[in-house]
Amino acid sequence: MTSSELIQIAAGLIGSLCFGILFNMRGKRLIAAAVGGLLSWGLFVVLSNFVSSEPINYFIVAAVVSLYSEIMARALKTPAAPVVTTSLIPLIPGGSLYYTMASAFESNFTTFLEKAVSTLKLACALALGIIVVTAISQFMFSRVKQK
Amino acid sequence: MEKLLDSVMDIGEQMLINGGEVHKVEDSIKRIFSAYGTKRTDVFIITSSIVVTIHTDDKAYTQTRRITETSTDYEKLHKLNELSRSICKNKYSDNEIRKQLTAISMSKKYPLWLEFICYAIIAGVFTLFFGGGTIEAAVSFIIGALVRFVILLCDKTVKNKIFSKFVSAFIATSLAFIALRLDFIETVDKVIIGNIMTLIPGIGLTTALKDLLVGDSIAGLLRTIEACITALAIAAGYFAVAFITGGAI
């Protein structure tokens, strides 16, 4: 791991922690979200050695972090969605949104389309990753309950 | 029954306001009424409105709630969730629910200065995240705190979220540009990206897509449009500065 990757992972942790505070999360739930931030970018960095496609990497990370959040949510008796959304903060494509805007301003439409499509792809991959896990865990949980 | 409906509507309303998901809120309301043994419960929720009709043996009651503003508060959401679970278990009277709701509405918030610091840290840290240097991060840190101040001013005066995003993006971009002119930093993009992270509707868009894919089409569409307009407002703030400075950004 290079030093810039370590900085990014630390930034993921601090970013999720601060967003957690902005969303008024407290105690163990705040810690769970911050650790989720660390997990999400750490995993992304590790996986990018093996997975070349960024959206697919996003999908895997989103799925794993959702699973983590579902487990944390059950353990802390709280809804999973707040933990998921705060944990996945480092994956929000802010940079690619900026470059989309910048290329639109420069009337550079090839770059604009490319960046816009990649922003959308990343957002979709993120959402899909979350949904797959949420759907499965709801199904499993209701099955366990019925028994 | 009517009073009970009133209190439960308040729970649903508060859940939505504090950042609950549409299908989760629908589910909670249905569960509560089925615990009280109503014959049938019809719930329709979109991000800005709740409609509930409950049917008892001889009568039907309907109430609606209009939700105009939302502010994410996961502490309240957590407590509301706990409350709705314990209602299903203990079948509180409507007075009891009312009491608990008041207690929840008084729940603690972090002090305002901490929010300023968080905005500053988020902006600074994401400048580093996207490859900025230490000085850029420091500039971004200061701008982040100022952006929170701008949002505070907007909340006090115009009370329009879209406009407030536009102004925030405008101020953040201008300050970054001034810092560039004063030779504090060499490029503005990392500083602007750091500050965009505090404004971006990233969570909004993800929730929107989630709603759509889960089947809450209307709520999902509303959220998608909201997220797109917010993104456009941020872009407009950036464009305004870019035009004024003649694209020197």
Structural class of chain B: mainly alpha
End-to-end span of chain B in angstroms?
62 Å
> What is the average per-residue confidence, as pLDDT of chain B, rounded to a whole number?
88
Oligomer: heterodimer
Strand percent estimate of chain A: under 5%
The coarse silhouette of chain B is elongated
The percent of residues in helical segments of chain B reads 55-70%
Pairing-aware structural class of the strands and helices of chain A?
mainly alpha
Q: How many independent structural domains of chain A?
A: 1
- Our estimate of the beta-strand percent of chain B is 5-15%
Characteristic terms for this protein:
heterodimer, A: 147 residues, mainly alpha, 6 helices, 83% helix, B: 249 residues, three-stranded antiparallel beta sheet, 3 strands, 70% helix, elongated
Describe the fold and architecture.
The complex is a heterodimer of chains A (147) and B (249). Chain A is an all-alpha fold and 147 residues long. Chain A has one domain (3-146). Chain A has helices at 3-22, 27-47, 54-76, 80-87, 94-105, 109-146. In chain A, helix 1 (3-22) runs antiparallel to helix 2. The mean pLDDT of chain A is 88. Chain B is mainly alpha-helical. Chain B folds into 2 domains: 2-105, no CATH class; 112-244, no CATH class. Helix content of chain B is 70%, strand content 8%. Chain B has 10 helices and 3 strands, in the order ααβββαααααααα. Chain B has helices at 2-17, 22-35, 74-90, 94-105, 112-129, 134-157, 161-181, 189-199, 202-214, 217-244; strands at residues 40-46, 49-55, 60-66. In chain B, strand 1 (40-46) and strand 2 (49-55) form a beta hairpin. The radius of gyration of chain B is 22 Å and the shape is elongated. At the A-B interface, helix 1, helix 4, helix 5 and helix 6 of A face helix 3, helix 5, helix 8, helix 9 and helix 10 of B.
What's this model, at a glance?
Chain A has six helices and no strands.
